[in-house]
Protein 1
Amino acid sequence: MKKILFVLSLLVFVSGYGRLFASGAISHGGDIVYTKPVKSVIFSHKLHAEDRGLSCGMCHSGLFDAVALKAQQKNDFNMDSLYKGKYCGSCHNGQMAFASNTQCARCHAGVKGHAVHEKKGPVKSPASGPEGLLILGKGDSFVKFSHAKHAASLICGDCHSGVFPMSRDKTKVTMEGIYQGESCGSCHNGKNAFSSYECKKCHEKTPAPAVDLTYKNKGTGAVKFSHEFHKSAFKCDECHKNLFAMRKGGSRMKMDAMYNGRFCGSCHNGNTASNVTDCGKCHKG
């Protein structure tokens, strides 16, 4: 039996919440007609996602890139790989679905089948994410994320599945990571989109501790730091992340370093703010 390149991949979805198909909150991606290397495979998103109830994350989290037809550009995208459980063969193994080395005509419609499909026209349905806003985070500093707003200028593959997996809650999003270009920070860097330092463009309230932070020191009085007071005079990016890590306890501060202009000493130099040598201003008791 001649080895036939099995051209089959899945179109893009903005979100991997397949369980929402039944409610109509997310639509399937329509049909895809593959023409390489021959006009042979017609793939139906409706059949797999809507009728069979498969979630997007089952395919778009390692098996296939979230860009239509990209899989067929790979050298190993062939029947041998499918027989070994890769790509479509991950499910078409004779257990979850019919084996990839049987019932060939169910996928390979051939040139005649392709012609009939072209005449009738493919079933089209725009891929879409969850309706409404997604609430990310907890407390007053939560973020409202709109798939519709982002999809207006981006294609699904820009985010899925390289930046974000096609499954909800699979990515741990932290401000530290965002500042380093991870997750949202891959675009929100001040070039592709507004900088992630512009906190209020995403957060309902500035994500800063509501109460003073207390730093205990051996041999000296404790220091209380007020975000509320400092953010009234400074922007978040004036301190984070160059001076301080964006997490409690992430910066090991020492007075010698402050005297050399690091940490608090960057501003507390006698010009911008009181000098770090004015010990009583910060150390109480």
Protein 2
Amino acid sequence: MSCPVLRRTALVLALTTLASFSFAQKVQTKAEAPWPTRPVRIIVGFPGGSSPDLTARTLAEPLSKALGQPVIVENKVGAGGNIAADYVAKATDGHTIGLMINGNMTIARLLNPKLNFDPLKDLTPVSLIGVSPLVLTAPVGSPGVTAQDFFVAARKAGDQWSYGSPGVGTVGHIGMELLKRQIHINPVHVPYPGYPQVATAMIGGQLQLSMLPPALAMAQIRSGKLRAIGVTSSGRSPLVPELPNMTEAGVQGFNLEIWNAVAAPNALPKPVVAKLSALLSDIARSPEVRQKLFQQGWQVVGTTSEGLARRIKLDTALLGGVIAMQGIKPE
């Protein structure tokens, strides 16, 4: 009597075990599915030939080799890179990432609460690629021999001087507002379409100072068309080691950098983010890519996802504080 019951019980247990094993195998297979399974897109919010575009294309080829899939750079231009950032934040294909500048990942929402995406909630940090100070620059005929002399002249000029930036809310704008508060000067802000136009206006005498990226600034400084006051980092930059930093220029505790980074949609699985972070960090720090990025004006960092997250937190606090204190509003 008991044998059939035992046999049935054993059969049920065997079938249950088999079903559990089959389910676990499916889950494991799904979790360990290879990535990527198709081409990966890097979305850039600026036109071809721009600094973010050049960085993305520098990373694309070695990343393609590492992943075994094509890596395609797509430009979605507008709104200071926020159109591209919004596109990345909303991507659901699992194969879209973005090359961002720091403004897109820190202060974008602070400047415009109506923005269609929240960088802190909708974007996942992948890797901080490169950093660069700005160069506080003035016309060749500007007053004073030293940086301190120049700042004295700026205080005396009050709002009779003007400074340029590539637009309201850019790091060039917010950085100048931070400097204004710290050294008690009051030049008037004049926004331009981009840094090249700012440099041209300074050479032409329409502006008295500005913070420019090193690659652009040094080309004009070395040709004798502009004058360097100092770099906006706390120490001397390997990009322009000949220039004094802000501490040497008499401005204590001033440290401001622009940077670029790779971000992904928040929905991208964590194992994929970790894989991308490790690959991009290694690629950026490889001798060949490091040299190319250096020539483009970037000091390579190549962080983990967590390292980029920490930088986002620090810069959001710094730049957000200036936005609040100065009452900066979007155009």
Protein 3
Amino acid sequence: MVNDAFTFAIQGISFDEDYQPSDNTRITTNFANLARGEHRKQNLQSALTMINNRFNALVHWDNPNADRYSVHLEIISVEMQVNGQGNRFPCIEVLKTNIFDHKTNRHIDGIVGNNFSSYVRDYDFNVVLPEHNKNKQQFSIPEDFGELHGNIFKSFINSEVYQQNFNKPPVICLSVSDSKTYLRTENQHPVLGIEYQPNESSLTESYFKKMGLQVRYFMPATSVAPLAFYFIGDLLNDYSNLELSSTISTMETFQKIYRPEIYNANALAGKRYRPNLNHPDHSITQIVYDRDERSRLAKEQGKFAELHFIKPYQNILEQWSANCVY
């Protein structure tokens, strides 16, 4: 492993009904989107209630009243400096789940990761990719697309800061792609549910692979569509049922809010499943979420990363990434 050019620092803030996004939070992030506007407190209360109800439904053993556990969420913001120079740049934001057992009055570690936000990813998808395909008749991907971002992520996961604060690698949970078809398999996990396999790989899979993450797709019990789980190691054996349930309950809730056409559909995914963001037969949650603003701000944040991180340190970043080995 090469000597790292980055110094990382993390800070955590509780995601609860009183949460207020900080000035340097990526405001396209799911939780920040919910925490703004006149309905902010109702949004947060409703989302947290959904998470707790879903968790207790998943963890139903020794839980006859479906109220034994509460899931507490912490927003983990990661900042970095390049060679100790200049101001810290807000590079990554994830969620950490924590479980409280009301029966035993015990706090139980959950999983770090879950949601994943990154300014550099915004730069890749909203600056690099459109510029590369400008005036081209056929869409293509730059040869080194996502390599810098992937190396930054791996550098963070291998840093002392990460090792001191988290005892397991992250698990990131995303929605399925509406451009792929997913086929149901015979494999079934007691919490993750039924495994699906895509008919082909996606750009997202390729991008996360450069971060050192592999992916598997599972549809938990009573869910209506599979979720994508990105992980390092052995997803099924490295994490407890409680840990996995905390990720499912958290991220499925977010998906129901901003991907209701898929995750709040009124029909179950079949053996051969093609997600459809225009699917009319779905239910809407009573939570206000601005998807159009989220897309617009992602472009602005990509430009921010270009201006404040990529261009000022371009030579250092290119040299470091080219020689980075993990």
Protein 4
Amino acid sequence: MSARDLRAFLAVARTLSFSQGAQQVHLSQSALSSLISRLEQSMGARLFDRTTRSVALTTAGAVFASHADQVLSDLEHAATAVRDVAMVRKGSVAIAALPSLAARIIPTLFRAFNEQHPEIKLTLIDTLSEAAFDLVRDGRVDFALTAANPAHADLDYVPLTTDVFVLLVADDHPLGREKTSVSFVDTLAWPHISMPRPTSVRQYVDAAALRSGIQFHPSYEVSHLATIGAMVVAHLGVAALPAMAADVIRGSGIVCRPIVGPVIHRSIGLIRRREGALSPAAQAMLTLLKQEICSAAGSPGKSKSVRSGRR
């Protein structure tokens, strides 16, 4: 039984005329009669009492008419809902992002997306890297914007940009008065303020120290960028942070210096589940996200955009 069958039946039920019903559904009268006969056979009941002069609904036909009308209405609503999703008129998008990226990129991204798709509900969860991977794996977000981590090989990683680390120091700190880049090894002579070990920022700094044959032991470990910025201004230490994170707290009393020896790169990309495709709304969000990442790549942080691809 198809929607076409239901429409044909209802055309006869409403007009009580096979000739008028046939015109409404663009069928010949004989074709419509055959269709109604097949419906009656499939349900094992007569739907119409027919004479040469009149057509009337049977009791079974009246019951079927009330249900058929509701079924068609539900089908039309379902089709409209599907079209709305396909045309990005309705739906939702949920994103997880590192706090620095959430502050640096997401506000502009969401504003641009809202202007194009005002009926789409947007959700942002700003969280650390490990939690972001779990949110993607559990299906609570469509994708996450975070740093690469080979330990999560069950998820797809699409690189979007490369962020470089810079050193944050107070503007009157000896390292802050230098106009050239700063050697990472030389910064270790000063107290460091760093994020806790599970964070991606800490992992990259630890790795850079190990490449130089040094164990990294920060004097302070804090989780929030604002706290790091305040502690740097208070001369409690220096901080090595990705440029995008540094941009969030860059301000009065803080200067940034490029880090060399070694240069510390952090790959930033999109994390998503391997199974299933993104919804049209999420795909539209991803297109805008790539544009925002490219825009951020031209910021003072000197992040470098890279070609999208699976890794």
